[in-house]
Amino acid sequence: MAGIRAIVDTGFVVGALDAADQWHAWAAQEFPNLCSPALTCEAVISEACFQLRQTSSARRQLLAWIKCGGLVVHSLLPSEIDPIERLFDRYGTRMDYADACLVRLSELHRDHAVVTTDAKDFRVYRRFRREPLPLLTP
Question: Which CATH number covers residue 111?
């Protein structure tokens, strides 16, 4: 079985690394199905480190995942500022910066699914204005 090419969101990252997280069972089940490397953005790393602040071992695991090349962190500014700005214009306050970056990564990596616990928002977002994002959600 071929693995899933993935763009990972904060909820998945936290769920995968924190056994006490509500999404841990789902994330732990899906984690082995992801092709390496998974992709994400710096905003997701920031959010995940904040949410994992009480679990230093989980933050170390996150950094180790990046260090070994299993998770590639994309910096989208300043090169992708115009597309991100258009996403903000379209979705207003519903969309935060991390979500905008993940939608843009989905546009840049069309063969990747967004792996997220936030189905409510990501089912609304569209890449290229009309195309639903491929999603993996609980």
Answer: 3.40.50.1010
Global model pTM greater than 0.70? yes
Q: What is the mean pLDDT of the chain?
A: 95
Q: Is 103 inside a domain boundary? A: yes
Would you list the DSSP string of the chain? -PPBPEEE-HHHHHHHH-TTSTTHHHHHHHGGGB-SSEEEEHHHHHHHHHHTTT-HHHHHHHHHHHHTTSEEEEP-TTTTHHHHHHHHHHHGGG--HHHHHHHHHHHH-TT-EEE-S-HHHHTT-EETTTEEPPEE--
User: 90 lies in which domain range?
Assistant: 6-129
Q: Model confidence over 77-101: pLDDT tens digits?
A: 999 999 999 999 999 999 999 999 9
Is 135 within the bounds of a domain?
Answer: no
